[in-house]
Design a protein that fits this description.
Blueprint lengths: L3 E7 L6 H32 L18 E4 L5 E8 L7 H21 L4 E6 L2 E2 L2 E2 L2 E2 L2
Antiparallel strand pairs: 1-3, 1-4, 2-3, 4-5, 6-7
Helix pairs in contact: 1-2
């Protein structure tokens, strides 16, 4: 069984070129922060069994957070998802991934404050609290 994080932002006007660049910058930075943490913690995760495939590298462990749709439907600004569960990772890498992606989504929400947001993990809404998304 797989679990995924989904997000979508809606507003009446499409992304400008600068906003599209900002969207890419924020999602890429979130993934790079996750890769940096994974690189640092991978020896420990392998030693403790949190990662069971020693051949997989930090970039290949996780799906990027990047959007799969930009303005495909009227009112949709962008939408995306990332698979959270993997057969070769345990709770610690999963929580690191979730933390980095919710941080990136918080930065996106701050960057696009006029959008209406929906963030959920499968059918569970991820609540917005003052200061960010949190579980």
């Amino acid at each position: 069984m797989s679990v995924s994080l989904y997000y979508e932002a809606h507003r009446d006007t499409p992304l400008t070129r600068d906003e599209h660049a900002l969207l890419t910058e924020i999602t890429d930075a979130g993934f790079e922060a996750l890769v940096a943490e994974t690189t640092r913690r991978l020896p420990e995760w392998l030693r403790t069994g949190q990662v069971t495939d020693a051949a997989i590298g930090p970039r290949e462990m996780f799906e990027p957070l990047g959007p799969y749709a930009v303005r495909e439907r009227v009112g949709e600004l962008f939408a995306g998802s990332a698979k959270l569960t993997r057969s070769h990772i345990g709770d610690a890498p999963l929580m690191a991934q979730t933390h980095h992606y919710l941080d990136a989504l918080t930065r996106l929400r701050d960057a696009f404050p006029d959008a209406v947001w929906n963030v959920h993990i499968d059918d569970l809404d991820v609540p917005w609290t003052p200061g960010g998304y949190a579980l």
